[in-house]
Design brief:
CATH architecture: Alpha-Beta Complex
CATH topology: Maf protein
Strand order of the largest sheet: 2-1-3-4-5-6
Number of helices: 6
Oligomer: single chain
Number of strands: 6
CATH class: Alpha Beta
Largest sheet: 6 strands, mixed
Shape: globular
Mean pLDDT: 92
C-alpha cells in the first residue's frame, strides 16, 4: 500500500478523502509526517492555497504529499465566501460561517452556488493540479445532519436534498471533492511509483 501525506488537520475531510481513495492508498496525517505547524494559507485562489500547503510539506519534510483547498462560491454574494469559506465570519466556527451565508442571502432570488475543490499533488518535486466542481443552489434553511461545513445549505443540481441530507456514500459519488479525488487517483494509478 502506497502512502501519501494529506496536508490537512480537518478530520472530517481526512475521513472523506480516505473513503474516496480506498484501501490501496494510506493517507498520512500532518501529525504522522511530523508537521505540527499551522501551514499558511495566504493565497487569493483555491489553486494558490492548495499549492502553498503541499509545497510547504514537500519543502520542509521532503515527502510526497497532496493538499486541497475548497470552498463555496455564491453568485449573489459576488463569489463569497470563496477562499475564505473556512473563516468567512472571521472565526473558524462552521456554524457561525453557515449562518452568515444564510443571513447574507436573505431576500436574494439568485440562489446559484458551487463548491470547488482544487488538489495540489507533489510527487518527486513536481506539482500536478486537479479540480472538481459541483453546481447547485443555497437553500433558504438548513437541512440534514450529515457532512460538515456548508453541507446543510447546499443543494446540488438535480437533487431536492442537501449534501447534509445524503449519506456519505451518496455525497461521495457527486461532490466537488469526489471529482477532484477521482482525477487524482486516476493520475496516481498511471504513475510509475504508485
Amino acid at each position: 500500500m502506497k502512502s501519501l501525506v494529506f496536508a490537512t488537520n480537518n478530520k472530517h475531510k481526512l475521513e472523506e478523502v480516505q473513503a474516496l481513495m480506498g484501501s490501496k492508498f494510506h493517507l498520512k496525517t500532518l501529525e504522522e509526517a511530523g508537521c505540527f505547524e499551522d501551514i499558511p494559507e495566504t493565497g487569493t485562489t483555491f489553486e494558490e492555497n492548495a499549492s502553498q500547503k503541499s509545497r510547504y510539506i514537500f519543502d520542509h519534510f521532503k515527502l510526497d504529499c497532496f493538499s486541497d483547498d475548497s470552498g463555496l462560491e455564491v453568485d449573489a454574494l459576488n463569489g463569497e465566501p470563496g477562499v475564505y469559506s473556512a473563516r468567512y465570519s472571521g472565526s473558524r466556527d462552521p456554524e457561525t460561517n453557515l449562518q452568515l451565508v444564510l443571513d447574507n442571502m436573505k431576500g436574494k432570488s439568485n440562489r446559484q452556488a458551487r463548491f470547488i475543490c482544487v488538489i495540489s499533488l507533489i510527487l518527486d518535486g513536481n506539482e500536478y493540479l486537479f479540480e472538481g466542481r459541483a453546481e447547485g443552489r443555497i437553500t433558504a434553511d438548513r437541512s440534514g445532519n450529515a457532512g460538515f461545513g456548508y453541507d446543510p445549505i447546499f443543494q446540488p443540481e438535480g437533487y431536492n436534498i442537501t449534501y447534509a441530507d445524503m449519506s456519505g456514500e451518496e455525497k461521495n459519488q457527486i461532490s466537488h471533492r469526489a471529482q477532484a479525488i477521482q482525477k487524482l487517483t486516476d493520475f496516481l494509478d498511471g504513475y510509475n511509483e504508485y
